[in-house]
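RECORD TYPE: protein structure
NAME: Lrp/AsnC family transcriptional regulator
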Amino acid sequence: MPVQLDDLDLRLLRELQRSNQLPVSELADRVHSSPATCIRRVKRMREEGVIVADVSIIDPAMFGKSMTVIVEVTIERERPELIDLFKRSVLKNERILHCYYVTGDADFVLLVHVADMEEYDAIITDLFHDNTNIKQFKSLIAIRKIKSSTHYPVTRYTGAESAR
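PREDICTED:
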C-alpha cells in the first residue's frame, strides 16, 4: 500500500535521486527545510520502504562489459515448480542484472551486460542448455543506449492512478 508523502518528502526524494551524497545542510537548503527535519524525514522514508537502497551506479563498460543483451525466455510448461526452478537459477547467476516474469509471447525477460559473445554464450549455456523446460529464448543485442535512468518520477499518490 502506498504511503502518504507530502511536498517536502517529494522534494527530498527528487534531490536524493540526483545525489544521495549531499551534505545534509545542502540538502536542507535545496528543499527549503531544516537539516533536522530532513534527517528525520529521510529516516522515516527508509523505514517505510520508500527509499530501498543507497547505491553508486557503476558503468559496466569500465569493467569490459560493453555489450547489453535483452533475453526473452519462453518456458515449455508453466507449472509452479518449474517456474520456481528457473527463477532460482536466475537468482544465483550474478551476471543477470534484471529478470522480469512477464505476460505476452515470452515468459521472462532478462538483462545482462557482457564483454563479448563468448561470455554471453557461457551464460546461455549455464541457463538454458541443460534446462528441458526452456522452449526457446531470443537474444536482442543493444546497438546503442538511448535512455537509462534510475530516477523515478515522484509525484503525490492520490489513489486515482489505480482506479483507471
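COMMENT: The longest strand covers residues 67-75.
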